[in-house]
Amino acid sequence: MPKGMFVDTSICTGCKACQVACKEWNALPHEPGHFRFDPVEKRPVAVNFTGDSYDNTGALGATDWRRVRFIEQFSEDRSRGRWLFSSDSCKHCNDAGCLNACPTGAIVRTGLGNVFIRQDVCIGCKYCIPSCPYGVISLSIATGTVHKCTLCNDRIHNGLGTACAKVCPTGSISFGEIAELRKAADTRLAQLKGLGYGEANIYGYKEAGGLNVFYLFLDRPQVYGQTESVVVPQRRLPVSSAVAIAGALALGGAALVSFRERGSRPEDGEEVKT
Amino acid sequence: MNPEVHIPGWEWYYVAMYFFIAGISAGAYFIGTLAELFGGERHREISRTGFYIAFPLILLTPPLLIADLGRPERFWHLLFYAKSGIPYMNFQSPLSVGSWALLLFGAMAFLSFLDNLVSEGKLQSAPFAKAYSRIPRKWYAVVGSIAGFFVAGYTGVILNVTARPFWVATDPLVGALFIASAASTGAAAIYLVMSWRKKLTDPGLPGFDRFDRLSKVLELVLAVALVLIAGKWAAPLLRGLNAVMFWGGAVVLGTLFPLAAGWYATRAVEGRMPPERLATVMAVLVLFGGALLRISLLQAGQVQ
Ligand code: SF4
Ligand code: SF4
Description:
The structure holds 2 protein chains of 2 kinds.
Chain A: E1 3-8, H1 17-25, E2 35-38, E3 43-46, E4 66-74, E5 81-89, H2 97-101, E6 107-109, E7 115-117, H3 128-131, E8 138-139, E9 146-147, H4 153-156, H5 163-167, E10 173-177, H6 178-194, E11 201-203, E12 213-217, H7 237-263
Chain B: H1 12-39, H2 44-67, H3 94-119, H4 129-132, H5 137-160, H6 165-169, H7 174-196, H8 205-230, H9 240-268, H10 276-300
Helix pairs in contact in B: 1-2, 1-5, 1-7, 1-10, 2-3, 2-7, 3-5, 5-7, 7-8, 7-10, 8-9, 9-10
One iron/sulfur cluster is lined by residues 101-102, 104, 106-107, 117, 122-128, 145-146 of chain A.
């Protein structure tokens, strides 16, 4: 029975407890500090802030497996505004670009449907990094291998839920069986529509073969930084290969006309000894 | 197109150089084979030179490929599944299939290289000659050429089959472009080695010259088409150093200029071949352009 998470962004408060829980449970290294003591100024100076958002994580990666996105929309005079929050992570796609791309078999899908990177198999070729359509994976210089969210592989195979879902104080992240999560998502969507949220939608039923971590958004997915037309890279492989083969055939043809022309004409008075 | 897709961080001096050198090797090999298959004995010198080039060059490539890995000592996981030691191939991953193609190509290039040495009398009897000399030379040259086309092309397909916007936008042309470039750089390498070995009197040269021109035209067409189909996503290739490398290096110096020079020379000078000194300079430019083509297309996909 595949398991996953449903992220109801409509009730997320942007507290980042999920980020903290993820770092703690998975013992992920901290980021460089946000303040550095400046020996010249003789005081701490701010570094490593995004500078334009309360989101200072910026992107998912080898040490940030969860990231709360802040969508901060304000009018010019800041009299009107809207804050949207969305806790983001690896989506454990059913058609996973990363898994498809891996040449060593380091990325596997477990019986519970989560996509897991075997650290003892990965060679750090980095091919999975651009192959994930969501920008989830990155290389760790420390291990020479790539890392991403495991869906708390150790917890879920021992009857627990994910750490982020466990700690979420509003219930924005819930862990469970996909079928049940979808039921809950549909109910919540109907409720929100009834309340007048016409743009509300669920992201992840169809994308990349279905996402095991899917979302309820109040606005278009694009607003939350989620791409609306996902093409899993490997679905383009047949055409890509066919065109490369056509290129090779064109060269073969060029060789045929080039090398043949004089050598094979009897009137040139030469024997062809093939 | 999702600009949030991460860049892999492939270093151009390993990965683009791997694409480049593997391309020359594969190009020299398949030109050698095609010349002999279609052109017969009068092209024997060209095919011999191609086989002399292919094997030493392909030997240079695994270290480049391995040096870019985060865990170089585990490179063998590309061929064998680490958990079981059983040969492993992932058909959806051009990197995985390409690793096997590289191995197969290397093996065939080795056989052709040995065969060369024996037929030129430089080696009395090749090791394992008994095992493979019963198989006609052309058979493994054909197998090696198919693997060679694969090696030349999969390096481009690898880039296209990702989610990085520039590489998605240039899909599906990079593989074919790299194959055309493998042909033109392979031909340039063959020319340089033949001129160094003082074999430029070969009767096969006019045909070789024609093939070389056709491959450059194909390369040129594909390079321009690639920019056109990418539309606004071609921006990283049209700015700064990438633009200089792509337009100035790969397109102008690598294809346009040699084509024009060859055409001009055949008009101006009696006979069918451009003069030797000019052709040598052009061959060097083609190699240079081939390297810059790989670097610019690799780097344009890795602009933040
Ligand atoms: S979101 Fe990216 S890293 Fe996660 S399973 Fe999908 S392709 Fe892989
Ligand atoms: S970096 Fe590791 S997990 Fe990613 S594709 Fe390469 S071997 Fe597979």
